[in-house]
From TrEMBL:
Residues 96-259 form the CRAL-TRIO domain. PANTHER family: ALPHA-TOCOPHEROL TRANSFER PROTEIN-RELATED (PTHR10174), MIP26555P1 (PTHR10174:SF212). Gene3D superfamilies: Alpha-tocopherol transfer, CRAL-TRIO lipid binding domain, N-terminal domain of phosphatidylinositol transfer protein sec14p. GO terms for molecular function: phosphatidylinositol bisphosphate binding. The lineage of its organism: Eukaryota, Metazoa, Ecdysozoa, Arthropoda, Hexapoda. GO terms for cellular component: membrane. This is CRAL-TRIO domain-containing protein. Pfam families: CRAL_TRIO. InterPro entries: CRAL-TRIO_dom, CRAL-TRIO_dom_sf, CRAL/TRIO_N_dom, CRAL/TRIO_N_dom_sf.
Length: 285
């Protein structure tokens, strides 16, 4: 049994495979044919990606087993990594250890929600010391978490939900964000992240949040826009999407208040260094 802070790499259960069949068209026959076709497309392309079955599934599941779409997603990832090479080239967990261990700005819940989705909270308010941690460092940490999340078949199939918590946000936080940073984050989420982003929830937004939203809004496409929800301090609204039985007391849930964070999660990243380095080889030939 994996521990609460372990990445669950176990094979999908029959229940999970039933979800995959219904939502992703995944059957043994479709999977085998798509893997074979994607290998052929990859070999004939200018892309350099590992082509083992587990790795190809990372791209086939979010694209519903259409090989051409999976290849396009791979190309988007390669383009993104090329565009932001200075930030992402050979990025390993130790490069962002301080964001996890010392500052605790990002926390992955140890439980999933009622739909089996991974839950994560990003603290963009009082917990964020902008004099010490830049938006670039936060993004690098988020990118590292993505590399771990795609290892989980359950997350590949059920997807992920992110909560952005703006409690205590001040003008210093607003000034620490940029149009370039907003564009980078949204390009990543919408085009270059092989995860099913099922919802993004904003909570505890102060009035000045409108200034932050003005940075992000121009880059939000229709599909993601439909999955973004703004709750303020009304946690009952959040519970309409994530049932309170699956949320900690911090967010009006019935689970205990969070007593863990990035410090507890960080060793997990180090355990999967081989995969992260494998991921870092992805790009153009």
């Amino acid at each position: 049994m994996p521990g609460p802070f372990d990445i669950d790499t176990s094979a999908p259960s029959a229940e999970l495979l039933a979800v995959a069949k219904e939502e992703l068209r995944e059957t043994p026959e479709v999977r085998a044919a798509a893997i074979e076709e994607l290998r052929k497309l990859l070999k004939a392309s200018d892309l350099s990606f590992p082509d083992d079955e587990d790795f190809l599934l990372i791209y086939l599941r979010p694209t519903k087993f259409y090989p051409e779409s999976a290849l396009k997603l791979m190309r988007n990832v390669a383009e993104f990594n090329k565009s932001y090479k200075d930030l992402l080239h050979n990025l390993v967990p130790s490069d962002v250890k301080d964001v996890f261990v010392d500052h605790g700005l990002i926390n992955i819940f140890t439980n999933r929600d009622q739909k089996g989705r991974r839950l994560m909270v990003v603290h963009m308010g009082e917990a964020w010391n902008t004099k010490v941690v830049t938006e670039d460092q936060i993004f690098r940490a988020l990118y590292t978490i993505q590399k771990l999340a795609v290892l989980e078949p359950a997350t590949q199939i059920n997807g992920a939900v992110v909560i952005y918590d703006f409690k205590g946000m001040g003008m210093g936080h607003v000034k620490a964000m940029s149009t370039g940073g907003a564009k980078r984050l949204l390009t990543f989420i919408q085009e270059a992240c092989p995860l099913r982003m099922k919802a993004v929830h904003f909570v505890n937004e102060p009035m000045i949040f409108n200034m932050v939203w003005s940075l992000f809004k121009p880059f939000v496409k229709e599909k993601l826009n439909k999955r973004m929800f703004f709750h303020g301090e009304k946690m009952a609204k959040l519970h309409e999407h994530v049932q309170k039985e699956y949320l900690p007391a911090n967010y009006g849930g019935t689970l205990p208040a969070l007593d863990y964070g990035g410090k507890e999660w960080y060793p997990t990243a180090e355990k999967h260094l081989d995969f992260i380095q494998k991921w870092n080889t992805c790009g153009f030939k």
